[in-house]
Write a structure and sequence with these properties.
By secondary structure, the protein is mainly α. It contains seven helices and no strands.
């Protein structure tokens, strides 16, 4: 079995694939998560969203794009531990 191309599995590419698969524009996604179309363009290009937007993306995509995708597994584990101890 052939491995996915790294750019196709990047979180921004996964967000774009999710959006396009549902026939949504970047403006529609931006309205849903409370940011601009330009911000969504930047997220899809690889920029990491700030925490509130990242949380909304995870919820909006029903976990198809996760915090672990953006942060990397180790960083996500650190964040989860901090949130659990707060």
């Amino acid at each position: 079995m052939e491995a996915d191309h790294p750019l196709e599995t990047a979180p921004g590419a996964r967000l774009k694939k999710w959006r396009v698969g549902r026939g949504l524009s970047t403006a529609q996604v931006g309205r849903e998560i409370g940011c601009t179309r330009l911000s969504v363009d930047r997220y899809e290009a690889g920029r990491m969203p700030k925490q509130p937007y990242l949380d909304r993306i995870v919820v909006m995509t029903d976990g198809e794009v996760t915090a672990s995708d953006w942060l990397g597994k180790e960083a996500a584990d650190v964040v989860a531990k901090r949130l659990a101890s707060a």
